[in-house]
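Before relying on records like the one below, remember that each one covers exactly one chain. Contacts with other chains, cofactors or solvent are not represented anywhere in the record.
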Amino acid sequence: MGVELAVSPQHKKVRDRVKRFTRFDLLPSDAVAEAFARGHSEGDPVAERFVAETYHGEMGGEKARALLDKALRVGIANVPDAPESMRALFAEFETIPDWLDPDLIEQGAAVWRRWGYSLGAVGNAGTMDTYTEASLAVPLSLSGGYAGASALHRYLETSRWWLEVCRPGAVLTPGSTAREVSLKVRVMHVSVRARVAAHPEWRSDVHGLPISQSEMMLTLLGGSVGPALGLYALGFLTSPAEMRAVLHFNRYLGHLVGCRVDDMYPATVGDGVRLLYYFDATRKHDSGELGPELVEGFVPSFEPAASVRGFQRVRTLFHLHLQAGYTRLFMLPWNRKNYRLPSGLPGLAFMVARAPLVAVVELLRRVVPAVDRAEQAVAMRSWRRWHAWHIGRREEAFDASKALRR
């Protein structure tokens, strides 16, 4: 049994009107809708067995983390004391799905490289828009990842993963940092899932499992169909073929982080739009005070400290207003109005003014391969520079042993 999901009357009306005039159905098939509801109660059994036996078992977090690091460094075959649950996890992780197309993977990664900083910003704005839902807000609030002062650092951790997986050939290269970080993200999610599921604030009868298969599916759409369509407003002209490629790329990323990408994963961009609409149509709006805690804590985390002066202060304020601008553009207005956020108008004005230039470059890259390569290089260099500037001497931990904050 899955959680109960009901399409709102307003969304039904919009669906009927769109279908009448375009013949495009905004809602998924009954089979996909049922799989999505069922997926709210489904997790990652293979990784869960490993975490229960090691991180949450007698071995403990510190030793489990060291064992995982060793296996990633030298290969699971060279770790004789690895438990069977760990060998099963690595076997699944290292399996190449029969549907994988290496050319599409690289094309999809190239799309991410062209989007660059905008991918992270639009993805984060879209994610904040989902904090109306307790099933998403409770795990983040309890783990503390996107709450209060830690919000920016958690975003930088996620950005590190984005930066690594879209490097040319990275996700298919054994031993790459991209694959290492992906497995650590998977283990971290499983650890948080177990801790939150056992917490008295979690309502399993209403929400199923924390960080469920369905919610992980939404993050994959937030890295493919969502930005592919949304970033048109900022001049990024992603073609239908590129949309399909980035959808395929995200499908493999889902495989790496423990998301089942067979039953309900979109086969087309239209299928992706239907799932996104279905999520919006079945919102419960039950996050209460946790939604504002998470949303209102993120953008202000970009504010410069009182000690920051001169150019560095201007640079910090620029990114603060830019992130606020993305929330104005990519959060639903009726959701955004419920939160106290910076106006976002300066950042929005900058993005709108830049859009024609971005569009010109996007058109040129289709006929001049050198422009395509240059666009990717410039976008990635800028994104990495921003990440390095913010991360400073801190390190991304992807810590699966961290306790909940309350």
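Residues 49 and 164 are 27 Å apart (CA to CA).
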